[in-house]
Amino acid sequence: MKEQRDYIQDIAEIRSMMERSSKFASLSGWAGILAGIYALGGAFAAYILFGFNPDELNYTSSNLTNVILLAIGVLGLALITAIYLSWRKARSKDEKVWNATSKRLLISMAIPLVSGGVLILVLLAHGLTGLAAPLMLIFYGLALVNAGHFTISEVKIMGIVQITLGLLSTWFIEYGLLLWAAGFGAVHIIYGIYMHFRYER
User: Fold this and answer.
1) Where are the transmembrane segments (predicted)?
2) Which sign, positive or negative, has the C-alpha torsion 142, 146, 151, 153?
């Protein structure tokens, strides 16, 4: 009977090791919180400084270039923060942040993100600015759902929330910037706080 319990325990430990090796577990809760704060700041700046608030599909703005540069800046800042905090978290656990699992995670995210980015640029070139915010949420959500296969399951749930907000935004174009701020801002902050208390304390 004792030997049987030992075998079961060994199998459980092996299964746990296999799961850990196939999941990227160095995502930082603080990275999510800061990314959300950056997004809220960016949405606020786009609205207040550049008067950007598309209320229909065909929307023109003399400040569109500035808004695009602002969005790229927010994205770059969020990525740098996420990479640095993930690297620091992996280092504290004596793990490598760049391994086979993190490569698969990045590739699975890159496919919908690059596809969505190209599509959005094409739509902007045709003046369909009102679809930019909804499609950002939808393609980002798809990237998170893909990434969820290689990291904690909560990422997949956040992806579904982003897709839902994006679909709502396609119907309520006039609330696009608000829903964008809710998805990239509030949802990230809530997710980051949950991650911090669930996995990092």
Assistant:
1) 24-52, 64-85, 105-125, 131-148, 179-197
2) positive
